Amino acid sequence: MKKIVIAPSILSANFATLERDVNIVEKAGAKWIHIDVIDGHFAPNITMGPAIVKALRKTTKLFFDVHLMITSPEKYWQDFQKAGANLITFHSEVQTDKRKLIENIKTSGVKAGISIKPKTPVSDIEGLLSCLDLVLVMTVEPGFGGQPFMNDMIPKIETLRKNIDQNNYNCLIEIDGGINSQTSSICIQAGADALVSGSYIFSAENPAEAIKSLSL
Question: How confident is the model at residue 73 (pLDDT cuts 50, 70, 90)?
Answer without folding.
Answer: very high
